[in-house]
Design brief:
Belongs to the cytidine and deoxycytidylate deaminase family. This protein is an alpha/beta fold and about 170 residues long. Helix content is about 30%, strand content about 15%. Bound molecules: ligand LCLUPRNS and zinc ion (ZN). The site of zinc ion has 6 residues, from helix 3.
Length: about 170
Amino acid sequence: MGALSWDDYFMSLAFLTSMRSKDPSTQVGACIVNDRNRIIGVGYNGMPSNCPNDQLPWSKRSVEGELATKYPYVVHAELNAVLNKNAESCSGCRIYSTLFPCNECAKVIIQAGIKQVIFASDKHSDRASAKASRRLFELANVELRQHVPEARRGGRDGTQWEKAEKQ
Ligand SMILES: Nc1ccn([C@H]2C[C@H](O)[C@@H](COP(=O)(O)O)O2)c(=O)n1
Ligand SMILES: [Zn+2]
């Protein structure tokens, strides 16, 4: 079996990173890489630092309203990857994300100078936030590409991708 492709490698790293997330419904991971294939930053969706996790909700919906759900509090994987960067700039980099970026992450990605987005799942494509992202990325000339693992092209064993796609 030959070497793992860069795309499979960095998307695998994004999936591995997503496994740190405590979100019970959707674990997301992201990995930013420069043009020399050096890792610039990784992140996953989680509550902000220094906020005790047990004091914030992980629910998707609540009879008490939005403030009793995770949405107003959780920091998205892509934003964490940019914030965690170990280089001066993300300019000209590409980002691998296990989930297509929402509009808030799209703004951050564009402002950070990232030029390419490689995503695995597009499961929220019907949401307005995903539609707004596509519009922003198109206007800002950020290239979008859905990752097709080597295994799907008849290459290696693809069990990790099958598991991820079922999420
Ligand atoms: N681009 C994205 C989109 C979403 N997230 C996070 C935010 C939530 O923790 C979770 C989505 O939850 P769901 O509505 O699927 O239950 O994913 C992210 O990190 N990056
Ligand atoms: Zn987001």
